């Protein structure tokens, strides 16, 4: 019984899921497309959801026939800036610009909702990319009259126009075939063609009576001027023609010195690891530069070498590198129109994405026509734009914020001074108008306009609260009121006088302290000097005599010389020691008053007379 009920429940769930799945669908307009290199391909697409279920995720992907691997276009750098998807209502049209040979494959669209897994078309669209070529009619080959035909493996409709180029310059013919006179100088040269929905030209064919003539050498740049975003990648292309020779080398370069070969861009330190050469078809040499910088804005030229000579294409391709910027304008309804702009014209196949406070603007609230975004009011929100797949976002625009008042100079203000009030605000676009007000109890009084408000010869009546208001195209903001205090002149004079007296008294006190300190230091220095003049070493129980006659001695130890014969006598290290043996006392021209005890011995050393006298 339980097994039967379980089977019934599973069957009911399966039926419900099948019903939901059946209501989800993707419809593609065709099963196969053919395009020539450089053209734009559009794949029409519609999808439906069950019960208006909310779509969580959607994407286009390519299934390579060679390896069977899926490549999500929005995540593949090979499709960077070349893919756009229509997102209005249930549309999912895919447009691929500037298709290349490697773009060939099967393309499909899928989405999933909160209640379903991925839903896709039963089979995708098989895209085949081919090249144009110029065919020489075999019946006219080698003849005076030569017929050339622009063709490809794709079958073109009757609504296409053909464009012929001689030596890189456009000629007037719009037909698929042209007839030329190979012997006429006006018809000699290299010929290539393109169709109206592609910028790529076919490889050139040389028409000349002498295949080595210079008229068959050429380099054509398409386009000659390119605008790209900082941080993005850019492809610079050249088409070259030459007589029947073998190409041995080709280079892109910026600088060329007289008498020296040009430096390959790939070998320049500024471009290390950022330059790649590619060849989409015969006689094509494209160069890709990644992670563009402002200093990459240069003129690039192409040179190729053959076993019959070399040729440089002039004047080259001019590359401009820019960033995105949002500009603001008013609408008739009172709202704001935001435009995503750049300093140069970007290719028209770019898809623009708008952001509000750092988050992509949802489809429900988006009222945009690519370059523009319409909003009723900005308020405190921040808006920016970016180019799809490049992830390069413009600086955000917003109304004024962090508005404040700064008083210059700072500190107390006294009657008669001058003061400047400066209004500071962060805004993008920049502030257009600054307005000043004096806050009062009854009503705020408007003062003036301008970022700075200066008051000369201020008085106490100027004391009060001041604030400013900053206005830009998106809104306005007022600062917090700032108080200006103006002091009376009399009060300031008394305050400065009191301060001056205090400073004088402090200086007198410091001077007295310094004098007392110097006297104490001088007294201490003299005491130390006196104590170093004579040093006595005292042993235990040894009498010390601290008075020694400094009179000059005669030959008789008991007599002294006259006062006028007195010389300077210096003594040092006088030491008395006790001796147990009875010895005769030793005297050295020194008189010691009083008798010496027998047990004492007196020893003198280093006695110097400045002027020794002869014995009389």
Can I get a quick summary?
By secondary structure, this protein is mainly beta. The protein is built from 2 helices and 48 strands.
Walkthrough of the structure:
By secondary structure, this protein is mainly beta. It has six domains: 23-127, Immunoglobulin-like (Sandwich); 131-213, Immunoglobulin-like; 217-322, Immunoglobulins (Immunoglobulin-like); 324-396, Sandwich (Immunoglobulin-like), CATH 2.60.40; 399-489, Sandwich (Immunoglobulin-like), CATH 2.60.40; 533-616, no CATH class. 11% of the residues lie in helices and 38% in strands. Strands 2, 5, 6, 9, 10 and 11 form a six-stranded mixed sheet that branches. Strands 20, 22, 25, 26 and 27 form a five-stranded mixed sheet that branches. Strands 38, 39, 41, 42 and 43 form a five-stranded antiparallel sheet that branches. The longest helix is centred in the C-terminal third of the chain and has 43 residues, at 489-531.
What is the CATH C level class of the largest domain, in words? Mainly Beta
CATH topology of the largest domain: Immunoglobulin-like
Radius of gyration: 52 Å
Give the CATH H-level superfamily of the largest domain.
Immunoglobulins
Beta-strand percentage? 35-45%
| SS class | mainly beta
Characterize the overall form.
Answer: elongated
First-to-last CA distance: 160 Å
Low-confidence stretches at least 5 residues in length (pLDDT < 50)?
1-22, 363-369, 534-572, 576-602, 605-616
The quaternary organization reads as: single chain
Per CATH, which architecture of the largest domain? Answer: Sandwich
Q: Helix share of residues?
A: 10-25%
Major sheet: size, sense and barrel closure?
A: 6 strands, mixed
Overall structural domain count: 6
Rounded mean pLDDT is 76
How many alpha or pi helices? Answer: 2
